[in-house]
Design a protein that fits this description.
301 residues, alpha+beta, three-stranded antiparallel β-sheet, 53% helix
């Protein structure tokens, strides 16, 4: 009978022992609570102990967490409006303060509170900046200002905001179309200016080319006329020299040339008297009485 009581007692004792032990992962931190009050903080990984049935263990993340804020519309110093959102990285550093601030909501509630902090810090900082500062390298200084505010406000939650980055800086939807239309008009104006400058340059090149063609053609014609005149002079000199050496032979050659040109076959015809002086060299053996002046001049070859 005594054994029947010992076994249940041992089982109950084993359950109590097991329920008094908890394990903390290296990625977690733990709070031991008794009726909602913090009794123990366990930040190192390993085994921990609590009073069974009276105390509870709540685990929290020990890793760096990320937060993506909702897009908010911000009015800049230059009265321009931008839609901005941010990404923040944070970590729990004070478990007791964190528990008192977020209650039972845990990390999810902390995300909401940090989101509200950033939603107030972003307009506060960007409201004193111009669009050029937001969209240039000065943006890093603006993000540091937002980070300082988030760190200060985050201390009340028991968290440390490690970094804040602006991820989106866009124009509102109602302004996008007007901005795109203005950009389109500017690009079209620039394109028209480029076309006009290109047309002007092309006209200059074309005019220069036309002038060069005229100059080259004129020079070529001048040189051709000079060469042609020199050739004609040389030909006349040779003809004159040949005529001076043997006038009768020269007259004979001219008559043969005239016969060749006049008596070619074709649709044309020639009518003259048989005793015409044109046929002197065909009627006589020598044609000595032919008058060279009466023979038509042969066309220039």
């Amino acid at each position: 009978m005594r054994v029947l009581y010992i076994i249940p007692a041992l089982v109950i004792l084993l359950v109590l022992v097991l329920s008094s032990v908890f394990i903390v992962d290296e990625r977690k931190k733990a709070l031991v609570l008794q009726f909602g009050q913090v009794m123990q903080v366990k930040e190192d990984p390993g085994l921990g102990f609590k009073v069974p049935l009276m105390q509870d263990v709540v685990l929290y993340e020990d890793r760096i967490l990320g937060l993506q804020t909702q897009p908010i519309e911000v009015t800049l110093l230059s009265d321009r409006r931008l839609v901005v959102d941010a990404f923040a990285r944070w970590r729990i550093v004070d478990l007791v303060q964190f528990r008192q601030s977020v209650g039972t909501g845990g990390e999810e509630r902390a995300q909401q509170l940090l989101g509200n902090i950033l939603s107030q810090a972003i307009p506060e900082v960007l409201g004193n900046a111009t669009q050029e500062q937001v969209l240039s390298q000065d943006r890093a200084a603006l993000m540091n200002q937002i980070l300082v505010i988030a760190k200060r406000e985050g201390q009340a939650l028991g968290v440390d905001v490690i970094d804040v980055r602006l991820t989106r800086t866009d124009l509102p939807e109602q302004n996008l179309e007007a901005t795109f239309a203005r950009m389109r008009a500017e690009r079209e104006r620039e394109a028209a200016d480029e076309k006009a400058r290109g047309g002007e340059a092309a006209q200059r090149v074309r005019a220069s080319a036309d002038r060069t063609v005229i100059e080259l053609t004129s020079d070529a014609r001048r040189q051709a006329e000079v060469i042609r005149g020199e050739a004609d002079a040389e030909r006349n000199r040779i003809l004159a020299e040949a005529f001076g050496r043997d006038p009768e032979f020269f007259s004979f050659i001219r008559s043969l040339t005239a016969y060749e040109v006049s008596l070619k076959g074709g649709n044309s015809s020639i009518v003259m008297q048989p005793d015409s002086e044109f046929f002197n060299y065909l009627r006589s053996e020598r044609g000595a009485d032919a008058d060279a002046a009466a023979v038509p001049a042969a066309p220039a070859p």
